[in-house]
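Hi, here's the filled form for the chain we discussed.

Project: internal
Contact: R.S.
Residues: 371
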Amino acid sequence: MLALLVLLALVVVHSQRVSRGVAERATEHLEDSRQEHRRQVILEGLLRRIDESQRRIEQRMGDLDIASRVLAAERADFQAELDARDSRLRSSLADVAAVKTLARENAVRLGTAGQQTEIPSERGKRLMIQPTVQLRGNGTVGSAVVVYSGPFAEGASPERYCNLALTAFHVVAEVLGNRLEREIDAVKLFSPGADQETGALTARLIAYDKAKDIALLSLGTEIRLPGCAHLQDDALLGELDIFSQACAVGCPLGSNPVATMGQITAVDKEVDGETFWMINAPTYFGNSGGGVYSVPDCNLIGIFSMIYTYGKAKPRLVPHMGLFLPLGTIRRWLDNEGLGFVHEGSPVPAKAWKKMGYNPQTRLPEEEKNG
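And the returned structure, exactly as it came back:
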């Protein structure tokens, strides 16, 4: 009996020991599981941060790529602008070189011309250079010709003169930006004694014909202008034909008047239903509106209108193929406009005073003093 009790006690003690061992191992396993879980959580957190960092890096790389493309595009635009400016500069230099070439060609022509085509220097200056007018505005330049400097008729003030100039209509339209009611406020005369320092001379559109590319301007001065073109007689005008010598005078590229020698090469060039004459005297941008004169008498035979070009993408000028409106057509147009006194050289009739901007009630400063 005693032995049985001892055996039971031993069994109980052993069971307790086994239970404690199992509990201890369970506790250790639980602790290991918790630590493993903590490590797993920490690792997952690190992986999330790594993923987030990688995403941000990729986003930054994308931003850098976009910025790089933008900079590349801006660089391309800047280079294109530089190339365009370089092209414009080269074109301007080419224009200057072209004018110099025209001047040299003209010098050769004048130096080798025969006695029949020689123009006395002073006569040429007086009848072709001095009547020339330069018109500027709206980023463009053109020419005109003083064709009338006469008094007002029927008891008007003898001290006041009406000064008129012929030009090409497209010159006026470009200078005024198609706002034809405005005045041209940058007009330069080359008559002797004309004050070029004030820059205050203006011009106003009196009449025009778009199809004929002709216009008449009233100059903003009432003093008599000594530099006035002589109009060729109708009889002598009818004798002109191809091979007749002629001289074109204008302000190419905004220069002072340039005279270039040549010949009439056609008298039947039709443009939009109007007949123009062609001249091979070298001309350029700015000659439009200038005069074409017969040689050697230096009489006006027409108003220069346009230059031939070729090529669509980049048109090239043909400076020895210029068209001008003949004086006969201009005379008929003036008559139809009621402005025949311009080519007749008679005083301005009273019916035309208003159109010329003349008011007999307005007195000049000299008249105020004497009155």
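Let me know if anything looks off before we file it.
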